[in-house]
Amino acid sequence: MSSQDIPEENLPAEQDAHGAVSVADDKDPFADPGLPPHEHRVQDIDERAARRSERTVAMLFTLSMLATIGFIAAYVGVPHDKAIYVFPIGHINALNFSLGLTLGVALFAIGAGAVHWARTLMSDVEMVDERHPIEASPEVREKVFDDWKQGAKESALGRRKLIRNTMLGALTLVPLAGVVLLRDLGPLPGTKLRHTMWRKGLQLVNMNTNEPLRPEDVAVGSLTFAKPEGLEEHDEEFQTEIAKAALMIVRIQPDNIKDKRELEWSHDGIVAYSKICTHVGCPISLYEQQTHHVLCPCHQSTFDLSDGARVIFGPAGHALPQLRIGVNEEGYLEALGDFEEPVGPAFWERG
């Protein structure tokens, strides 16, 4: 159907927007021919065609919403190690394929819907606006507002409620795909920073020999490093757990222990303290026998192991946490619980 087949009274009103037309002469051989006559689209003259276009745009926006929901479902439900065969690509990761396909469809459908809307339902009358000074006059500003209102009216956003609602739904759901991706930042820490592997009955194992420690294995003035029983270097979580559970084992003459709680939590002068410095988490490894001081090699924070491991020098903010220890029935050193405070540097949730 063309505009020639429609009675003149049914055609949309023409806008006087074609500008002046000049005629070529000797002085101006390249005259402006002006704009060609405007040709109406079938949607401009047939409301049924306009409604078909409206349904098409709404279908594309709805498809975008469904694809976004599919993206979220694939992210949650498709195993990350599953592979599928896709011709002609071959075997690919199922999760990556499903995420890329659904997100691509969601974005494409929004773009295609917007383009189809603009090409078939929004006004396509060509407008001519003469050049004007950079500084906008009140008349120009008023014209801009009038043009904006006219454009909003011609977009039919208020009248085409189906398009408006589905477009808003599609634009609202698509950002959820990015929100879901935040899950890859990792699970929330919860209380993991406050606790370690240590618990009552867990034996102290020598880091060097990988054997459980007996009291007689720890000599006065020596420094021994220990880990929890059952934690092996080939474990997937070894680095994460040892970074919190690493211990320093030192034997001090009970008479030289100044802190009452330290003495109560020790066994025959054997004390167990966190190896993780409370400044920035470096491993402490330097021990001075005569003073019972340990030194962090990173920033020289110094702790007195004979006086509750309090800070006597350096930037560390608080003492090293002590682990309460005892001896089990087999004669091996064991933990009597976890640290009573978080190990390592302070963090903002810390009470």
UniProtKB/TrEMBL annotation:
PANTHER family: CYTOCHROME B-C1 COMPLEX SUBUNIT RIESKE, MITOCHONDRIAL. Pfam families: QcrA_N (PF19297), Rieske (PF00355). GO terms for molecular function: 2 iron, 2 sulfur cluster binding; metal ion binding; monooxygenase activity; oxidoreductase activity, acting on paired donors, with incorporation or reduction of molecular oxygen. It comes from Streptomyces aquilus. This is Cytochrome bc1 complex Rieske iron-sulfur subunit. The lineage of its organism: Bacteria, Bacillati, Actinomycetota, Actinomycetes, Kitasatosporales. Keywords: 2Fe-2S, Cell membrane, Disulfide bond, Electron transport, Iron, Iron-sulfur, Membrane, Metal-binding, Oxidoreductase, Respiratory chain, Transmembrane, Transmembrane helix, Transport. Residues 265-334 form the Rieske domain. Its main location: membrane. It is found in: Cell membrane. Iron-sulfur subunit of the cytochrome bc1 complex, an essential component of the respiratory electron transport chain required for ATP synthesis. The bc1 complex catalyzes the oxidation of menaquinol and the reduction of cytochrome c in the respiratory chain. The bc1 complex operates through a Q-cycle mechanism that couples electron transfer to generation of the proton gradient that drives ATP synthesis. Residues 1-40 are annotated as: Disordered. Belongs to the Rieske iron-sulfur protein family. It is a multi-pass membrane protein. InterPro entries: QcrA_N, Rieske_2Fe-2S, Rieske_2Fe-2S_sf, Rieske_Fe-S_prot. It comes from the Bacteria. The chain crosses the membrane at residues 57-77, 97-118, 162-182. The cytochrome bc1 complex is composed of a cytochrome b (QcrB), the Rieske iron-sulfur protein (QcrA) and a diheme cytochrome c (QcrC) subunit. GO terms for cellular component: plasma membrane.
